[in-house]
From TrEMBL:
Residues 7-61 form the HTH cro/C1-type domain. Residues 64-94 are annotated as: Disordered. GO terms for molecular function: DNA binding. This is DNA-binding helix-turn-helix protein. The keyword DNA-binding applies. It comes from Pseudoflavonifractor capillosus ATCC 29799. PANTHER family: HTH-TYPE TRANSCRIPTIONAL REGULATOR IMMR, TRACRIPTIONAL REGULATORY PROTEIN-RELATED-RELATED. Gene3D superfamilies: 1.20.5.340, lambda repressor-like DNA-binding domains. The keyword Nucleotide-binding does not apply. The lineage of its organism: Bacteria, Bacillati, Bacillota, Clostridia, Eubacteriales.
Length: 307
């Protein structure tokens, strides 16, 4: 049985006319007539639609016998209804199966080729996109590496800057102490009122053998200038100030004060200041210590020179 005969048989079994089948497949009645007369082969999509419409396997639909179409045994004439539907079928001679078979193979081969080309192009597109994605990932990784390197370099520079700042502060302190030391040694640097005048002060308040109170104080200046000398000043609250000369031991930069305290100074307390003079008689006053609450058992002292 040929493909056209199978289509005709399935159409009859489904109770469809050529026009009805054509409407379901979206083709004309003449196309159905050509298919059933083996004058043309349905396209691939139409074959698939026929297999779904008649609920038969596509392989079974395409499986044909090598013989020509069988004629009805009971009668050599077609039924009146079929003859009316297909008046050209009687006049058309049987066709060989090889013709539609070749056409079908050509259609299938063309479809496979088209699908192959489409898949090949899609694969090329996919590989191209994967290449672009790989390049983008590499670029991102490179940028991240550069950012990390720059952050590490900035952190290292910050640490170096902090270390240099600390070293500079240390050097400044050393230079200041060295300048003070040089000034104390040879007195070549003039006094600078913006710098500390006093380096250290220590004192004591003693009771003499006569029952009086004596103040003994040692002053170590922080600066030295040519011709510099020091005089001490004692000031009571609300009272007049009195001056005391200082003494300096040989080969020593310290100035000393030794004095007997008056009753007023003992009762009300007093403040000791140092007045520094240079060779031009410019003077610089620096309060040293404030002593109060003097009793036989002790006293209170407030340091002023380091404020």
């Amino acid at each position: 049985m040929t493909l056209g005969q199978k289509i005709q048989t399935l159409r009859h079994d489904a109770g469809l006319s050529q026009e009805g089948l054509g409407e379901k497949l979206g083709v004309s009645r003449q196309a159905i007539s050509k298919w059933e007369a083996d004058g043309a082969v349905p396209e691939v999509d139409k074959l698939i639609a026929l297999s779904r419409l008649f609920e038969v396997n596509l392989h079974d639909l395409l499986q044909v016998e090598g013989t020509s179409r069988e004629e009805p045994e009971e009668s050599g004439e077609q039924p009146p209804e079929e003859a009316a539907e297909n008046p050209l079928e009687k006049d058309q001679p049987p066709r060989r199966n090889g013709r539609w078979w070749k056409a079908l193979c050509v259609v299938l081969a063309a479809a496979v080729c088209v699908q192959g080309v489409v898949l090949f192009r899609l694969n090329e597109k996919l590989e191209e996109q994967e290449g672009l994605l790989g390049g983008l990932r590499s670029r991102i990784w490179s940028l991240e590496s550069q950012v990390s390197s720059q952050e590490a370099a900035l952190q290292q520079q910050k640490e170096q800057t902090d270390a240099l700042g600390s070293q500079l502060s240390t050097q400044d302190g050393r230079i200041s102490r060295l300048e003070q030391s040089i000034g104390l040694q040879d007195g070549r640097i003039e006094m600078d009122p913006t710098l500390p005048l006093v380096s250290d002060v220590d004192f004591t308040l003693e009771t003499t053998e006569y029952g009086t109170r004596a103040l003994k104080l040692n002053l170590l200046p922080a600066q030295s200038a040519a011709g510099m000398w020091v005089r001490f000043q004692i000031t009571c609250p609300g009272g007049a100030a009195r001056g005391h000369p200082s003494s300096q031991l040989e080969d020593s930069s310290a100035y000393t004060l030794s004095m007997i305290c008056t009753d007023e100074e003992i009762s009300s307390g007093f403040t000791v200041s140092a007045i520094f003079f240079d060779k031009t008689d410019r003077q610089y006053t620096q309060p040293l210590v404030k002593i109060s609450d003097i009793t036989e058992d002790g006293w209170n002292a407030e340091t002023l020179w380091d404020q």
